[in-house]
Amino acid sequence: MTKPTCPYCNQTLDKTPKRKTKCPHCGNDIYVRSLPSGDHQKALLTEQGAKEVEKEWERVQFKKKWMQSLEGYGLSEQDFDRQGETLRERFRQEPGDGDVIWSMFNEALHRAMKGSDSQQLKMLYFDMALFLYEEGRAFFDILQQSRKMELTGFKEAGWAEKVFVITAGDASCEVCQKLAGKVFKLDQALDEMPIPNKACTHALLPGKPGWCRCLYGVVTD
Question: Could you give the angle at which helices 97-115 and 47-71 cross, rounded to 10 degrees?
């Protein structure tokens, strides 16, 4: 069995540390981290090495999160690899995972638009807007498309003439609370697009802009 060694001075350690500890030989801090690849084996690392592993874990979790969304639209890991290769050839450089995922979202959108499924388009636009939001990119127009597809679905179904705005109650920002219960004719709502509210101040994440959570309800009388 290979004996543990310090990642700084390469001196042999009496036992494998289970948590951050100081090397008895050089006095540097040894960090213990699980590696994201393979069987998540634990490794003894320098401070810089630990930071690099933490970044790699963030990358793994980022990809996993958005691939779960994309799988709902019929895309897979094979599509991720294919899109990555396409972008690599087009731009002559290694694409970031975010670029590959955004390209996959656009592929899913292209497929969905062929099917003209308003409900699927509503969900897809929402996920695309959320991706852009978390990436710190302009998202509002895409989120607005999600609500537009919701209204379009109502119109196509032919069983709704009016809609009203549902807010998150007291958890909504003051600007959105003013819309609570407001009724619109369906065509009026499609023309004016009162929600999502561009002036919303409710931030989903610290330091991010407002993300309007208002929804439409159908007036049944």
Answer: 0
The counts of H helices and E strands in the chain are: 7, 6
Angle at 100 between CA 141 and CA 35, to 5 degrees: 125
Q: For residues 171 and 169, what is the distance between their CA atoms, to the nearest angstrom?
A: 5
Q: How many domains does the chain have?
A: 1
DSSP code of 213? -
Q: Which parts of the chain have pLDDT scores under 70?
A: 1, 38
Q: Quick check: pTM over 0.85?
A: yes
Question: Cα(first)–Cα(last) distance of the chain, in Å?
Answer: 76
Domain residues for 29? Answer: 1-45
Assigned domain for 168 exists: no
What per-residue confidence (pLDDT) applies to 53? 96
